[in-house]
Structures are given as C-alpha cells and as structure tokens.
Amino acid sequence: MPANLPPEYYKLKHQLEAAKTDDERLQLMEEMLRITPKHKGSEKVVSDLRRRIAKLRNAPDKKGGTKRHSHHIPKQGAGQIVLLGAPNVGKSRILASCTNAKPEIAHTPFTTREPIIGMLNYENVQFQIIDTPPVTADFVQPEILDLARNSDMLLIIVNLAGDDVLDEVEVVASKLKDAKIAIAQDVHGGGVDGNSSSDDGGSSKPAVIVANQIDDPNASDRLDILTEFYGDTFEIHPLSAATGEGREHLEKTVYDRLNILRVYTKTPGKRVDHDDPLVLPIGSTVIDAAMELHRDFAANLKFARAWGVNWHDGQSVSRDDNVHDGDILEFHI
Predict the structure, then answer these.
(1) What percentage of the chain has pLDDT greater than the value 70?
(2) How far apart are CA 139 and CA 175, in angstroms?
(3) Which of 32, 91, 112, 239 is most buried as measured by Cβ atoms within 10 A of its Cβ?
(4) Same-domain pairing of 231 and 100
(5) 59 and 189: one domain?
(6) Are residues 237 and 113 in the same domain?
C-alpha cells in the first residue's frame, strides 16, 4: 500500500536535508510526523520518524567553546549573498537591519573579525546574508575571498558619510580581480546568470554597490560622484541602514538579480501554501518544481494543475511546461 505522503512532507524533507542544527532537525521531523497520514502504507515512514526523533531528544547536550566558521559556509535559502567593504562602511548595521542576526556594531574599525550569518526574508523567500571582516588595500582574509567565490551574489558596501567612496569600491574590486573573481555588472537591472565563467577562467558574480548612509547631510554630493565614476558599470543602490530608506528596493534587486522565481503548491482540496514557496531558476518546468519537492515525488507524478496569469484557473499542464513567478501548482500522484 502506498504511503500517499502530501507535498508538504517532501518540502519539509528537503529542508531537513539542509538543516544545520539538531534543534532544526527535531522541529522539522516533528512536523513531518504530524502531517504524515496514519495508515498501513505509512507505517514504515512513521516508525522511522519516531525513531529518529527519539534519538535526537535523548542525545546529550553538546558543549564547547565559541563556534567559529570554516572557510566554507553551507548555503541556505534561495541564495547566498556576501557583504564586502572597507572598515566602518556599515556592513554589520546592514546585516542587523535586514536579518535576524545580532552582530556587534561599533564605530571602531575591524569590529567584525569573522563571518556572521543572517537570514533575509523577502516575500516569503529566504536569503542567506553574510557579513565579513573588512577589506583593505593591505590585506584581505583568504577565507573572505573563498566566500566571495562560492557565493551567489556580492554587495559592495560604501559609506556616503565619508569622502573615500571611490577608494572603497576600488579596493574591493582590485582584490576580487587579483583573486580572479570577475564581477558580473548589470546597470540596467535585467539580471545576470550568477556563477558563470569569465573570460580568464575565473568565476563571475552578480554584484551591486550599496551606498550606505544616504541619510547623511552630504550624502547626495558623494552619491553624485560615485555615480559619475561607477554608474556606467555598476548598479548603485542608496541605502540607510539606520532609517531603512532604500531597503525594500535593495531586497527586490537581490531577488531579481539572482534570476529565480517562486512557485506555490497546494494539495488537492486544500488551500494554497503561501508561506513556503518553491524557489527555482527562471526557465524551470513543472517537473523541475516536482523534483524540488522530492525526486520520488516527481517520479510518481501523474499530472498537475496550474493557476496564474499565464494559465486558466486549474488548467492541466504537462511536465515540460515552463512555470512562472507566482504560479500555483497542484500535483497529483
């Protein structure tokens, strides 16, 4: 007898595979157990979940010193965004204003000594934001370049409250160039294919300049200078981490530049799940969306129905039909 597990189960299972802590794993498995139908066909699934939950609950507490990040930080969410910049440009304040992270914020330089992670929620899509130690003309930590190389997007932060905005861009750009990390610029905001190859064989990253402290009295003059020198090669986003001005526009830019789309799912006869969309590359198909839930789910897919601006409500769609941002899919297995 088949288990007939709901689509939400496979979404939770996908999150479980990416979970980093035992607390996360425990919460996810408890929810998976809660939504699993209880019948003969699901006995093995229920038994396995109960065994794994009991093992985690009975595990001894892990104690140790302060956790430090390795050079590789596993990606979470729909994209990994790395903040780069000179000392005192406001990277930590931006992280604190956009995410749930609580970095140490001070006026003294070099307050950030290791990468700090936060999660940005934009219209129910999660992005991983990483604050990094400062980049200077004399030194950049090798692990920061590793993070930049493995990331999905770079935000180069400059400080409109100071007179060094041009140098702050040049220092970061030169260090990236030395590391053969090409910056994929798109001043028209049309999006680029992140992590593509550059002409010299290095990696290529979508990148924008974030001009912080637009609320400073002299910020507009410095923004004009920054735009004059870099406006033809970079998309420049004015922002005030202190007041929130420009934040919504920046978050939308992050979403647009990563070339992704959201697809919502629903179980037959139930409401749409708007809280946890599937996030897919632009150009994905119905079967790609099913695969994002789980490989086995896609293998057993019989047909799907779609709702959205490109479909008649409840229209039957094929496995190879392209999906669009905001589509709702109902899978039948």
Answers:
(1) 86
(2) 9
(3) 91
(4) yes
(5) no
(6) yes
What is d(CA 255, CA 263) in angstroms, rounded to the nearest whole number? 14
Predicted pLDDT at 206 = 92
Domain annotation covers residue 73 = no
Residue 288 CB partners (closer than 8 Å, separation 6+) = 280, 323
Residue 124 backbone zone (phi > 0: left; psi -120 to 50: alpha; other: beta): left
0.85 exceeded by pTM: no
Task: Check whether 241 has a pLDDT greater than 50.
Answer: yes
Looking at residue 187, which CATH number applies to its domain? 3.40.50.300
Query: Which of the four pLDDT bands, split at 50, 70 and 90, describes residue 74?
Result: confident
> 10 Å Cβ neighbour count for 206?
28
Report how many domains make up the chain.
3
Do residues 292 and 210 share a domain? no
pLDDT band of residue 195 (cuts 50, 70, 90) is very low
Distance between CA atoms of residues 13 and 107, nearest Å:
43
- Per the CB < 8 A criterion, the answer to whether 234 and 180 are in contact is no
The C-alpha angle with vertex 163 and arms to 160 and 165, in degrees rounded to 5, equals: 60
